[in-house]
Design goal:
The structure is a single chain. This protein is mainly beta. The chain is about 0% helix and about 40% strand. A 4-stranded mixed β-sheet has the order 1-6-5-4, with no helix packed on it. Strands 2-3-8-7 form a 4-stranded antiparallel β-sheet, with no helix packed on it. A hairpin with a 2-residue loop joins strand 7 and strand 8. The chain is elongated. The termini are far apart. Belongs to the small heat shock protein (HSP20) family.
Length: about 130
């Protein structure tokens, strides 16, 4: 098969964040996330491929958690025959409820996967009351 017969495919841009969400120029993708809950905390896992740890910003302001990841442009020397990853940034925001202890949120980032642990405040955790 000749190289010319294979045409590079563009990334499906249905996952592009609304333009109004970006505060900088360029394309912003909305990273897909999984969120699950235990009695003690919420865990948020976001895929943000291509983002280096020093290009990742996680902020909390006014009960809003903001995740911004910047992706550096791909090397121009590559001759793509298929391209599903677009060059752009990632942006996602979440409103935090009052049950989240914002002071104790921690993050781990490895191989393009961001994991945020959002612990619940003590009063939001279930507990048993024993009858004396």
């Amino acid at each position: 098969m000749k190289d010319k017969e294979i045409e590079a495919r563009k990334k499906d841009e249905t996952n592009v964040a609304a333009k109004a969400e970006g505060t900088r120029e360029g394309i912003y993708y909305r990273p897909k996330v999984d969120i699950f809950e235990t009695e003690a905390e919420l865990t948020l896992i976001a895929d943000i491929p291509g983002v280096e740890p020093d290009e990742l910003d996680i902020d909390i302001a006014d009960d809003t958690l903001t995740i911004v990841g910047k992706v550096k442009p791909a090397d121009e020397a590559h001759n793509y025959i298929m391209q599903e990853y677009g060059v752009g940034n990632f942006f996602r925001q979440f409103t935090l409820s009052e049950v989240i202890d914002q002071e104790k949120i921690n993050a781990n980032f490895s191989n393009g996967v961001l994991t945020l642990k959002l612990p619940k405040v003590e009063k939001a955790k279930p507990r048993k009351i024993t009858v004396g």
